[in-house]
Amino acid sequence: MKNDPTIPDWRKIGTALRAFWSVFFKPEKARRLGGVLNGQIGRRNLLVRLGGQFQPQMVVETGAHRGVTTKFLAQTFGVKTISCEIHPDYFWEGRWRTLAQRNCRIFPEDTREFLRRIGSRMKSPEDRVLIYLDAHWDPQDLPLLEELKIIHS
What we know:
By secondary structure, this protein is α/β, with parallel strands linked by helices.
């Protein structure tokens, strides 16, 4: 009975509904951390300038959090933008926030699994992929070194 696919998992549905409420009825929640790139204007300007020079064909972000920066990247560069978020509440909030962004998709997975899975899309030297590594919220599990190794391999 527990694994019956016809019975909905109410915890997952509740998580998705809480995130929906947060995105559409409490938008100030996303601004509390400063908005795009946590409100770091210098980083935002640098990323826009780099992107303007580099002209990526795809943007990859790790650690979507609430999807604010993910949406910004998709809108700014206008190319396919993919990200991931391991925390269910943040994943759903990001998914709802970027729903209307047709060139954007957030996946519910760990950054390392995500980068391994999409690695084949980034193999050609002609492909210009802008990768923004932003998964850093768990002090017990900082994936940056492993992410860099995956990207480099």
